[in-house]
């Protein structure tokens, strides 16, 4: 049977060597063994690395001199020129930081220079400026005699008309219509003003209507500021055709209004008015106050929403803080005392007949000083 010998290094032996089994040719076998031994112990290049260990034990290290046998106990491992640091201190292993997968997210940027904020102009400085427009009456309008106290209720319609004419000339360049629908609204309890814009399909004209709260705008300065705010809405719809509530167009007209009249407060989106209620209820526990325009709360059935405490009606006060003394007119007091008596005497009479009878009796008692 032929014996096939394959070498590990393909560069030296390209083809397998086939040996025929022959007892007579022992010299040829000995020569072949001699050649194989020379092949295994021949020196190799330093760049070539064996793919498998030559010895049977893979854990045995290779010696520096390949000419010596691997199992030779006298063989010594040759160490290259560099020496191992055995004498010095062993330094601890330092954990290297993990590399980031995406290096663009966390960039080390040097901090920018600190920039001091610009000093804002105090609002009191703007309030001290005057518009220098002839006939302007906007500064301290709430202190004028014709628009304070009882005169305010009489002249509030005239005040709205004068304000509209002034704003149309100085701010909107007389581009708004001469007559604009401005109404008083009793149902707006917290909203100061409302501008409703419509578009008629028949005439293809834009229309606006301004509502001013009668209960929130209870002074001349509040009417002035609310009307300026709502006219900016009206101008953005009538002149530019934009219905956005407080967009760039509205801000443009609001800024223009403050530039034309620097004595006015800034035209903002919301008001911060303290609503002057006529009647206040106070909680006996948390002392919270609830404002109403009429005595609409029943203290026997209603409680505080936060602590479920009992509500008590507070005495009436004016805007300046002075208490209002309850005053009953003498005729009302006379009617309260004698209405039932006269009603029983006049069974088939109407309410008007009873009141006429009471008025005659009141004048008689007033002349005789018997009230």
TrEMBL record:
Residues 73-86 have a biased composition (Basic and acidic residues). Residues 35-90 are annotated as: Disordered. One of its GO terms (cellular component) is nucleus. Residues 157-314 form the SprT-like domain. It comes from the Eukaryota. Pfam families: SprT-like. Residues 39-70 have a biased composition (Polar residues). GO terms for biological process: DNA damage response. SMART domains: SprT (SM00731). InterPro entries: SprT-like_domain. This is Acidic repeat-containing protein.
